[in-house]
Amino acid sequence: MIASAEQKLLAFYRKKGESVLIVLINMDKEKQFFQFDTTALKGNYKNVFTGESIWLNNGAFVKLEPAAFVILSTV
Q1: Structural domains in the chain?
Q2: Is the pLDDT of residue 58 over 70?
């Protein structure tokens, strides 16, 4: 788990070999802003739904619309 329930955001990652999958889900009716340490996860990722490329460095700031979710996969 990356996030706590009090933030109304479910966030976790799975790693197998060199492949990493990051899942972020806003479980609230309000926009959520979330910052987390990505030191162990830094690298180039792709949003699996939009194809957008995202670079995660030593920290990440995420804004999710109500009931939105993002799934990122290593490129």
Answers
A1: 5-74 (2.60.40.1180)
A2: yes
pLDDT digits over 14-48, tens only? Answer: 999 999 999 999 999 999 887 777 778 888 999 99
Length of the chain in residues, anyone? 75
Distance CA 67, CA 27 (A): 5
Task: Kindly indicate the confidence band of residue 1, based on its pLDDT and cuts at 50, 70 and 90.
Answer: low
CA distances in angstroms from 46 to 1, 4, 26, 28, 29, listed in the order given: 20, 24, 19, 24, 26
pLDDT value for 59: 74
Closest CA to 3 of 36, 31, 38: 36
What are the structure tokens assigned to 53, written together?
């490329």
